[in-house]
Amino acid sequence: MSDYLPFEKAVEALERNAAHLRKEAGRESEASELEERARRQLAHLYGQLTPWQRTMVARHPNRPHFPHYVAGLFDDFMPFAGDRYFGEDKALLGGLARFQGRSVVVIGHAKGEDTTSRIAHNFGMARPEGYRKAIRLMDMADRFGLPVVALVDTPGAFPGIDAEARGQSEAIARSIEKCLSLTVPLVAVIIGEGGSGGAVALAAADRVLMLEHAVYSVISPEGCASILWRGAEKAPDAAEALRITAQDLYQLGVVDRIVYEPPGGAHRDHDLTIKRLGLAIAAELAELDAIPRDRLRLERRSKFLGMGQKRLGG
User: Fold this and answer.
1) 43 with 60, same domain?
2) Residues 66, 69, 71, 76, CA torsion sign
């Protein structure tokens, strides 16, 4: 690990000392002892993360992103470009692929891996043409009877003037409408950040899965704090109030399954995270395959219309 989070300082010190001892002859046992202490400390920390700490984990730069999941779970990925209206948006990628031998459509946000690629992908913040490309792909999936897998990881849709001028809110609304009208299975996964309508545009799904340390909210903690307290320094308090964690959202019925991450978060073990997510997606698709297509759409719509009714006394 090279990118430690602020609350991991004790773990960082132990692991760096262990690495230093590994370089000295005859000190392997001391290094092993420090490594074991670091593992215990890491398990303790990640067993009691606050919502704000989970937000930091969800944003970790080394966390697996869309390309990692495509490479690890899907074969023969054939990306589609453009929305047939305006142009291409690299913040939202998608195309045809094979998942465990079956043809599917996979769509997801791409944040980028370094400064250059993050700028190219606009940090995962899609413009209208990105959501219109998603609609195009979902139309194709519906026409040919292919399940859709959506991997959500975005701070939110791009709020720039150019995006608004090209109908950002309309594009998001149309994408949500398309999700709800599909007659094929749609499984969405919040793999990192699920921010506002930019996330819901792909996540109005039959099954919404969420990685253990991902976050999902109508607004970022910083944005909420700036509105309520006139300053982003209150972001930890906002994160607590927003109920943005997988555990909270599962209890509220917003997400259907939590996919548990390796000790210390997905960024510490990409392979295990990808394997666990693949098993979860396969299990959900197997259940959805048994539901007739016309009933699938009705149940999906009823699910979202029913959210919050119990809490409101309905």
Assistant:
1) no
2) negative
Q: Tell me, yes or no, whether 144 and 274 share the same domain.
A: yes
User: Token pair for residue 144?
Assistant: 């040919």
Q: What is the residue range of 105's domain? A: 54-305
pLDDT of residue 2: 65
**Cα separation of 49 and 56, whole Å?**
10
Name residue 59's amino acid. Answer: R
> Which residue pairs, CB below 8 angstroms and at least 24 apart, start in 23-27?
none
Query: What's the pTM value of the predicted model, to 2 decimals?
Result: 0.92
Q: Is residue 71 predicted with pLDDT exceeding 60? A: yes
CA 247, CA 245: separation in Å to the nearest integer?
Answer: 5
> In which band, very low, low, confident or very high, does the pLDDT at 314 lie, cut at 50, 70 and 90?
very low
Q: Residue 314: inside a domain, yes or no?
A: no
Tell me which residue of 191, 220, 313, 207 sits closest to 250, measured CA to CA. 207
3-state secondary structure of 211: strand
Q: Give the SS3 label for residue 181.
A: helix
Q: Is 220 helix (H, G, I), strand (E, B) or coil?
A: coil
Mean pLDDT of the chain: 93
Amino acid at 3: D
